[in-house]
Amino acid sequence: MLAIVIPYYKITFFEETLKSLASQTDKSFKVYIGDDASPENPLNVLKKYQDQFNYTYHRYNENLGGTSLVKQWERCIAMVEDEEWVQILGDDDVLDKHNVKSFYENLPEIKKKNISVVRYSTCKINELGDLISDIYTHPKIENAVDFLFRNKRNSLSEYIFGRKKITSIGFKEFPLAWCSDILAVLEFSDFKGIYTINEGLVYIRITNISISGSLDNIKLKNLASEEFSKYIIFNKFYLFDKIQRLRLLIGYEVAIKRNRKFKIKDWFVLTKLYLKNFNIYYFLKFLRRSVIYTFIEGSSSK
Q1: Which of 67, 69, 153, 283 is most buried, judged by most C-beta within 10 A?
Q2: Looking at residues 216-228, what average pLDDT do you find?
Q3: Is 298 or 59 the better-scoring residue by pLDDT?
Q4: Eight-state DSSP code of residue 175
Q5: Are 195 and 115 in contact (CB under 8 A)?
Q6: Residues paired with 146 in a beta bridge
Q7: Is the separation of the CB atoms in 218 and 144 below 8 Å?
């Protein structure tokens, strides 16, 4: 059975999320709502839906999401009882009415192929619920490494994970949990297959009060991107071919440069990686770039 976990904090669009759950054509799911000590009590809204789908609500006395979204996800997931599959749905995102039905229709093939990460297609919506993007679809079965280099956008709400993988591996902590979902997709799939249900659709709400839509958290997002790149390089580099490694290293350089002035420590770390994995030609190109980062661009920014 499917568990839909909602780490709740903001009430603004919460009822739209609940409506989408109530409208599901297959009600074979249970919803677990973990209230992160929100100042906006959702009980009056929840009462409207108490007979429309099965849910459990718990209010936590301590706010965790303000310091660690990952820890808030984890304690909400701990509410799950015996469900085998878990979807973590944002409190402002919306499901197409046939999503649960399409998940169960595809489940026999998902199990046959021993896949632990399932995703839906997505579309962005604004505060009015208007569509503000094309529909993002994916290959039916995609290698996780290919996904990493193809990825244009990503959101936690579009995924369903095998609960055993969540329990055994867990989510990696990055600032704002930015990139934590991407890494979960890679690790929970064992860097292998991701199964897509393109006929299912999740509407991802982008507003100025959402992490994705806010412009006030750019520095933290950039820092998370750097930490994500560093984690992949120092823990999963062996999984990638030469061209992919080069792209990862250059991406790491760009992330460092975006966050701060290029330091001697950065130079030594990257020098070692280039000399270990590539020939002198690529190292010299890196050396030229690092000089630009450290001296030319650094002096021009003063």
Answers
A1: 69
A2: 93
A3: 59
A4: G
A5: yes
A6: none
A7: no
> Which of these, 74, 55, 72, lies nearest to 2 by C-alpha position?
55
Question: Tokens representing 99?
Answer: 């999503």
User: In the chain, what percentage of residues exceed pLDDT 90?
Assistant: 84
Contact between 49 and 22 under an 8 Å Cβ cutoff? The reply is yes
Examine the pLDDT at 36 and tell me if it is beyond 80.
Answer: yes
Q: What would the two tokens of residue 102 be?
A: 């399409």
Amino acid letter, residue 73: W
For residue 200, give the amino acid letter.
G
pLDDT at 248: 96
Contact 162, 116 (CB under 8 A): yes
> Is residue 128 classed exposed, middle or buried when 0-12, 13-18 and 19+ CB atoms within 10 A define those classes?
exposed
Token reading at 262: 């290029």
- The DSSP bridge pattern shows strands 193-205 and 94-95 to be antiparallel
- Residues whose CB falls within 8 Å of the CB of residue 284, separated by 6 or more in sequence, listed in order: none
